[in-house]
């Protein structure tokens, strides 16, 4: 009979993408909302957190004393689970290093050097590229974490597209570039990558069409024009705005 030794360290996995799930040896563990938020907060911080700070972030509408009491209660309930999840001290609380966290593991992959194209086909990391962080939670402390992941995703798409262009895989580059645009339609660098891909394939009309769609969106939404860098990319085919307009013979000049 294959039994697990009581002294053997359990395998603990914490998933935050597409919703909170805590797994211990492959089995989902029920945990109250306060405990979920504390574990998620510690996991995303990735370092020991001062107890007063954690209490204030997790219970911003409560008094300081009430927030501290809530934190103590959450820690107590978490420690009733028969595995080591947190390490509290008098001043700080820390997520145990033995807890695997999907976001942290995926972000390490996204920021690694030399694996850019491989990541697009990596099933596990692909989750980081597409799934939202705790989508049903509306806590203020999640705003910066969501933005951090969004920025990493956008830069990953653009890096992949650029590498694909260099390899002559233009169709794939355009598709990945468009995924970046779908995430942020006002992000100029994402549009530039797609234009670069069209130019590499010799499709001038496609490149100009992409540029003008972005220019119109930028003008309509923000009252701005594409940067000089973007215009320079298409300078052979764009009118020079610094040139004076042509004077028509017989036209009456305006003042």
Please list the strands of the largest sheet in the order they lie side by side.
Answer: 3-2-1-7
Percent helix: 40-55%
CATH topology of the largest domain: Arc Repressor Mutant, subunit A
Oligomer: single chain
Low-confidence stretches: 241-255
Radius of gyration: 26 Å
Biggest pleated-sheet summary: 4 strands, mixed
Number of E strands: 7
Strand fraction: 5-15%
Question: Structural class, from helix and strand content?
Answer: alpha+beta
Order of helices and strands: EEEHEHHEEEHHHHHHHH
Quickly count the helices.
Answer: 11
- Give the overall shape: elongated
What number is the mean pLDDT?
87
CATH architecture of the largest domain: Orthogonal Bundle
* Gap from first CA to last CA: 96 Å
Jot down its keywords.
255 residues, alpha+beta, Arc Repressor Mutant, subunit A, Serine Threonine Protein Phosphatase 5, Tetratricopeptide repeat, 7 strands, 53% helix, elongated, disordered C terminus
